[in-house]
């Protein structure tokens, strides 16, 4: 083997520090490239992760976190990464990237995958089919919380003030996980979406105890909203948020968001990441009022046993009947049936 040749190997637990060190230094990395997500997803959903490392002269030159997911009705496909906003390949060069893609393609073919979907926040260098239907949105935190507040749309500022006048209080603590899941599962039922198992969030708290934060909004002693954020040294990621439909007039989401923004400013973060959303959707319109800067994401696809980019997004009209049925399902039943279905819909 030549000294500068590229070797592809599968990640093992002994590679954890090496992997995470590479992630921390790569300019396009996200919190979700950390090796801990392999354990979070494996232990909560049962899917097996295949994390690929490209080595050159015994040093990491690229990574490719991959999960093979069996959807049942829609067959097998690969995804990087399921259940979170970002994933995809990190590489030092186009050559390294192509080596990782080739190895992942072989694994996908051997596993019987139709395709592999890469949730890239930054575009890859290789020539793969791509889709630009998602955007990511961030708020710069320069100037501190007072300056950030000034940059918010007037309607948002008014709702933050309104939430306080309405008696909404926000607390933070990992002991509010059950409160979060109760509100989150109800919110997803109302949206027509199966909820992932509570074990998923328990694993996040276990694996990332310093980075995960849970917020709870209450009014008159009742939990009316909750959210989970993930915070590293530079960015606070707004990942999962929900509120009771009948309590929206009290603006609990605005109250929680502002509390988390103030915490991020105090912690020295540079950005709030509002996550991804479909371009021109109602979710994206909501984020615009918070003064976000949006960037089109380029999801890439390795087509293995298909000839075109799949259309499994929730916005696909084919899913409208299933969504309607789920919205009308009794809440207790949606909490029972949701997790085994959601694990197949990453």
Summarize the structure.
The chain has 346 residues and is an alpha+beta fold. It contains eleven helices and 15 strands. The strands form two sheets. Strands 1, 2, 3, 4, 5, 6, 7 and 15 form an eight-stranded mixed β-sheet that branches.
Please report the number of helical segments.
Answer: 11
Q: What do we call the CATH homologous superfamily of the largest domain? A: Gcn5-related N-acetyltransferase (GNAT)
Structural class: alpha+beta
* Rg, Å, rounded: 21 Å
Q: What percent of the residues sit in helical stretches (DSSP H or I)?
A: 25-40%
Distance between the termini: 39 Å
* SS strand fraction: 25-35%
Major beta-sheet overview: 8 strands, mixed
Mean pLDDT: 93
| Spatial shape | globular
Number of strands: 15
Spans of at least 5 consecutive residues with low confidence = none
CATH class of the largest domain: Alpha Beta
CATH topology of the largest domain: Aminopeptidase
The ordered string of helix (H) and strand (E) elements is: EHHEEEEHEEEHHEHHEEEHEHEEHH
Structural domains: how many: 2
CATH architecture of the largest domain: 3-Layer(aba) Sandwich
Care to describe what's here?
The mean pLDDT is 93. The protein starts with 5 loop residues before the first strand and ends with a helix. Strands 1, 2, 3, 4, 5, 6, 7 and 15 form an eight-stranded mixed sheet that branches. Strands 9-10-11-12-13-8-14 form a seven-stranded mixed sheet. It has eleven helices and 15 strands. The chain is globular and about 65 Å long. It is of the alpha+beta class and 346 residues long.
């Amino acid at each position: 083997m030549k000294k500068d040749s590229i070797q592809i190997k599968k990640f093992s637990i002994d590679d954890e520090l090496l992997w995470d060190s590479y992630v921390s230094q790569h300019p396009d990395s996200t919190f979700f490239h950390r090796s801990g997500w392999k354990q979070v997803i494996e232990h909560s959903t049962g899917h097996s992760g295949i994390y690929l490392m490209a080595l050159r002269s015994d040093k990491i030159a690229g990574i490719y976190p991959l999960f093979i997911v069996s959807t049942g009705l829609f067959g097998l496909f690969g995804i990087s990464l399921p259940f979170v906003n970002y994933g995809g390949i990190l590489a030092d060069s186009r050559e390294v990237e192509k080596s990782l893609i080739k190895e992942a393609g072989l694994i996908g073919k051997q596993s019987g995958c139709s395709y592999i979907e890469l949730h890239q926040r930054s575009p890859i260098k290789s020539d793969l089919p791509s889709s630009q239907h998602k955007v990511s949105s961030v708020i710069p935190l320069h100037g501190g919380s007072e300056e950030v507040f000034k940059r918010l749309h007037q309607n948002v500022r008014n709702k933050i003030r309104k939430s306080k006048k309405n008696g909404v209080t926000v607390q933070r603590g990992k002991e509010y996980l059950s409160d979060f899941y109760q509100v989150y599962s109800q919110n997803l039922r109302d949206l027509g979406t199966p909820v992932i198992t509570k074990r998923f969030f328990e694993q996040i708290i276990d694996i990332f105890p310093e980075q995960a934060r849970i917020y709870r909004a209450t009014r008159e002693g009742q939990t009316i909203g909750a959210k989970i954020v993930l915070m590293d040294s530079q960015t606070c990621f707004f990942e999962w948020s929900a509120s009771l439909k009948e309590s929206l007039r009290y603006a609990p989401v605005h109250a929680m968001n502002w509390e988390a923004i103030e915490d991020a400013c105090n912690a020295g973060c540079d950005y709030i990441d509002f996550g991804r959303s479909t371009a021109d959707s109602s979710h994206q319109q909501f984020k615009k009022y918070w003064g976000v800067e949006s960037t089109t994401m380029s999801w890439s696809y390795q087509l293995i046993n298909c000839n075109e980019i799949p259309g499994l997004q929730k916005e696909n009209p084919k899913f409208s009947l299933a969504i309607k049925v789920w919205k009308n399902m009794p809440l207790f039943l949606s909490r029972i049936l949701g997790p085994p279905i959601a694990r197949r819909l990453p």
